[in-house]
Amino acid sequence: MNAKRPAPAERRAQLLDAADAVFAEHGVTAPLDLIVERAQVGRATLYRQFPDRKAIMLALLERSLEKTRQAAQALGDDDQAFFKLLALVADRIAVSAPLVDYWRAVERGDEVIAQARRQMWEAFQGPMKRAVEAGLCRQVLSFQDLSLVFGMLGGSLRGETAQQRKKLARRALQIIWHGLAD
């Protein structure tokens, strides 16, 4: 009896989950065969979805941006949404350090990265304004200020393990929250 094949979107998500885990564990230069093994699919399935490593990296970036947008939307009118989103980004940085490092190494003028930064800015706009209106944050941050905050969270990449990076990210968040609070 043949098992029903997963839908392409489901298979794509399965491959991205595997890629995220493999890259977090082995770095972004890990053999793509490790993704195939982790996802328990054939090579052809991987290459049908993603023709090369860059396509995987772009898909992981877009998925991360989408999760941030969804989190911002789900938090709705929560006055703490801005800080919760910062915590989500900090955790993502700590858990997926090799991916974050990869994107930090891409040239500043790269249009994909520029677009990703704009999308992050847009996701944070509403929550940031609500935090200011609620008196939880001194001022709405500029695009450059928010980029600087993300860079500060990136300091957690200095930790050698995910646990150390999470601890550094939490400390960076404390410092940032203290600096932003009224």
TrEMBL record:
- Which SUPFAM superfamilies does the UniProt entry name for this protein? Homeodomain-like (SSF46689), Tetracyclin repressor-like, C-terminal domain (SSF48498)
Q: Which domain of life is it from?
A: Bacteria
Does the UniProt entry include the keyword ATP-binding? no
Q: Which UniProt keywords apply?
A: DNA-binding
- The residues covered by the HTH tetR-type domain are 9-68
One Pfam family from the record: TetR_N
* Transmembrane annotation, as ranges: none
Q: Which InterPro entries match?
A: Homeodomain-like_sf (IPR009057), HTH-type_TetR-like_transc_reg (IPR050109), HTH_TetR (IPR001647), Tet_transcr_reg_TetR-rel_C_sf (IPR036271)
Q: Which Gene3D superfamilies match?
A: Tetracycline Repressor, domain 2
Keyword DNA-binding present in the record's keywords: the answer is yes
Q: Which residues bind DNA?
A: 31-50
Please identify the protein, giving its name as recorded. Answer: TetR/AcrR family transcriptional regulator
Source organism per UniProt: Comamonas terrae
Origin organism lineage: Bacteria, Pseudomonadati, Pseudomonadota, Betaproteobacteria, Burkholderiales
